[in-house]
């Protein structure tokens, strides 16, 4: 399905929160934490349920953000629940050439590229092949998948600082948008030294108490806050207090 055009006030609104043009000598990738939530801070109706929250115009914004990043990162909970495409449909005259590289945190090697929507898009040249982050040598390597061996702080928590450095140094990834899911978001909201921008779509609906909730274990203060009002959604852009 094609995207509706980007609302013309969005580029200017988003600009201060986007990665700087290439040439930056930063030692780590620029990290944008971005997702869509309901009014009751849920990002899906329930565990394992893919749920549309964004309106068509904020969905276009997500693809505009994908256009501006080298990598797109999700946790294993999301890849298994959603079977996402993670490509970029914005900028049609150039086809899908701005699709970011998918990065999947899958320490326990539960997800398969084979049979996924990501692979389908990759084979049609409409998306990139993934980098799968694992904690030990892959038991079974899949064709076209790059594996990144990275230290984990526990069986399910990657060491973000090392991971970001490796993605930068080994894969030349200078900007990453992290889309979720809740476990990943709740963890990164507490890491102002690593997260450069926060872009949250707030959809005009409630998903209920059995939904997957974003709520970090501590309070988080924001700065450089800006709001955009859409037809049915609002978008919050901000920096985490304490970030550089
Ligand atoms: N509305 C939205 O924008 C989005 C919604 N979602 C929804 O989120 C739900 C999935 O969320 P979760 O179950 O929480 O799974 P998740 O996608 O956050 O994955 C969690 C897994 O990621 C891995 N992980 C590795 N290092 C980690 C670290 N340092 N911190 C946290 N996790 C780490 C672990 O294997 C962990 O079990 C799905 O229902 C999906 O539809 C996901 C992305 C965006
Ligand atoms: N921006 C946004 N709005 C929503 O309503 C969503 N449910 C999501 N989900 C994220 O997008 C991924 C799906 O991507 P594709 O459309 O398949 O390319 C999904 O896995 C979540 O990361 N995002």
Automatic annotation (TrEMBL):
The keyword Oxidoreductase applies. NCBIfam families: ribD_Cterm. One of its GO terms (molecular function) is 5-amino-6-(5-phosphoribosylamino)uracil reductase activity. Residues 29-235 form the Bacterial bifunctional deaminase-reductase C-terminal domain. It comes from Torulaspora globosa. Catalyzes an early step in riboflavin biosynthesis, the NADPH-dependent reduction of the ribose side chain of 2,5-diamino-6-ribosylamino-4(3H)-pyrimidinone 5'-phosphate, yielding 2,5-diamino-6-ribitylamino-4(3H)-pyrimidinone 5'-phosphate. It comes from the Eukaryota. Pathway: Cofactor biosynthesis; riboflavin biosynthesis. This is 2,5-diamino-6-ribosylamino-4(3H)-pyrimidinone 5'-phosphate reductase.
